[in-house]
Structure formats: C-alpha cells, structure tokens
Amino acid sequence: MNKYCLTLIVLLLPLWGISQNRPPAEIDLSYFYKNNTGHVQKKGEEFYVVDSIQCFLFVDSLQMERPTTRTYNIAFLDESGDILESIDQEYDPEQGVWNNTFHTTNHYDDEVNLIEITKQRWDPIAGAWINLSRTINVPNEFGNFTEVLNQNWYPPGQNWRNASRQTLQYNDDGLIQTLVHEVWDTVAAQWNRVFRIVYAVTPDGQIASTLFQLDINGTFQNISRETYSYDPVFTQLETERLAEIWVADSMQWQRSSRVVKEYDSNANLTTETSQLWDNANS
Fold first, then answer.
1. Which pLDDT band holds residue 150 (cuts at 50, 70, 90)?
2. How far is CA 81 from the centre of its chain?
3. Bridge-partner residues for 110, per DSSP?
4. Closest among 238, 241, 236, 240 to 226, alpha carbons compared
5. How many CA atoms lie less than 13 Å away from 135 in the CB half-sphere?
6. In the chain, what are the domain boundaries?
7. Is the pTM of this model over 0.85?
8. So what's the pLDDT on residue 10?
9. Within 13 Å and on the Cβ side, how many CA atoms surround 254?
C-alpha cells in the first residue's frame, strides 16, 4: 500500500471573514469552504493560502485509492496569511465519514513570530476539544528562537505541566551555535539535560558540521558528528554528508556512512548515493 498527500485546494481566501467567523467543531468543513472563497489583498497584492491538504492510501487488494487524513486551515492572519487555526481529521472507511482528531491554534507576536502552538484532541464521547499539548517559543530581536518550551495538559489539575525544552544560542550573525535539550523531572521539580548539538557554520552561513553529545553524569560526551560539503557554484546545495561515531576506547572518530549528491547545470538533483563505511578493510 502506498500513501501520499495532495494539496487539494489552493484558494484566494477572505482572511478577515474566516478569522472573524471561525467554524464550530461540528460544522461541515466542505460547506464552509464552498461558501467562503474570494479575494484578499496584502499591501495591494493578492496572495495565496492553502485551505486543505488530503492524504490518500492506495489499497492493493481493492486496486483503488482511499482517503486517510486531511488538514483544514480555517483561520489566518490578516496581514500575512499565516495560519491561526487548523483541524485534522481521519477518514472512517466503514462509515464513510471524516472524524475530528486534532485542533491546532497558533499565536504570533507583533513581528509575526510564532510564539505559541496549542494542540487539542477531539473527544467523541464529550463531543468537545480537549487540551493536549502546547509549545511556547521565545524569539530574540532577530526572530530566532532562544527557547522552545513543550508542555502537556494535566487533566486532574486542569493545568499545563512542563515536558521538555530546548535552549538555543546564536553567534553575532544570527547563526545557530548550540542547542541543548532538557526534560522536566516532576519529582525533583527541575530540568535535567539530555543532549547537546554543537554547530559549525561556513562563511556563507551554511551548516558545516554538527556534533551530537549526550549528558552523562553531568558532562557532555561525544556520540556522533556529521560534516557537510556544498557545491562551489550553487553554494546552498549540499553535495556530501559524512557521518562519524565517537569511539571512547580509542578516543577517536570512526567513519560510519555518507550521502553523496550530484546536480546538473540548473541545480537539479540528478543522483543521490548512500554508502556505508567498511571499517574492517579500511
């Protein structure tokens, strides 16, 4: 069985109408979109937003495609068209109906930085959306996130509880240097470090290498690293990615695998080759 997704409808939507008239959970979304199409202006220019994406599964035994999931974007920022609200649904082939699964709400600051994402799940018994998780992003003056906090909804206490967070640091050019991932210890009520990624960048701002380290007994220790090479002409195109693992006994890096990519004169990818390193015969 093969699964694929399709951008079903791309429309010029009246953002002001949608954001002010959000459809309730039980609304027929197909009817909603059929009656909410039109034109929208942004600084005198029209722009497109995607109102839905549907995924299909080809069933070999039936020799036909069957819908599986779909996402409806139902509210947008007036100024930019960024998604404010979306609903995910799953298709029930036995009943021939779409059932709600998740509802996502996005919040932006005045600079249109995505600062909060709240996700809810559909409770078919209660017929209501129930809080599930949320992510809070803290941007710096350049719009780069310096902290990403993930929380889960705790029904008994009717409150949000910490789950994990990432702390990110950047250089003076706004390029990422480190990412530290931590998980929340509910018993000790503190953050515990799990891993760190250290980045090196090229003069063009591309990622030159990534170093992955685990926190073991309070100290970050090497685990693996990847080194990237780029096309000399099309400097944004990756030509090689070399993966290595750290051997603690010998205190040295050992090659693991690599991916090599080739492009034509128009920067189109022509070949991609994955290789494993033979350590026994190297």
1. very high
2. 18
3. none
4. 241
5. 15
6. 1-108
7. no
8. 38
9. 15
Residues in the chain, overall count: 282
Are the C-beta atoms of residues 117 and 134 closer than 8 Å to each other?
yes
43 token code pair: 């600084």
Confidence band for 12, pLDDT divided at 50, 70 and 90: very low
Give the tokens for residue 265: 């004169």
CATH number of 1-108: 2.40.128
C-alpha–C-alpha distance, residues 137 and 150, integer Å: 9
Q: Tell me, what's the pLDDT at 279? A: 78
Is the model's pLDDT at 282 over the cut of 70? no
Side-chain-facing half-sphere of 89: CA atoms under 13 Å: 25
**From CA 201, how far away is CA 209, in angstroms rounded?**
7
What are the angstrom distances between the C-alpha of 135 and each of 78, 82, 107, 152, 187? Answer: 23, 17, 10, 9, 22
pLDDT tens digits for range 48-100 = 455 667 787 777 776 777 778 888 888 888 777 788 999 999 989 888 888 99
SS (H, E, C) 47-72: CCEEEEEEEEEEECCCCEEEEEEEEE
Residues 225-266: tens digit of each pLDDT:
999 999 999 989 999 999 999 999 999 999 999 999 999 999
Residue type, 97: V
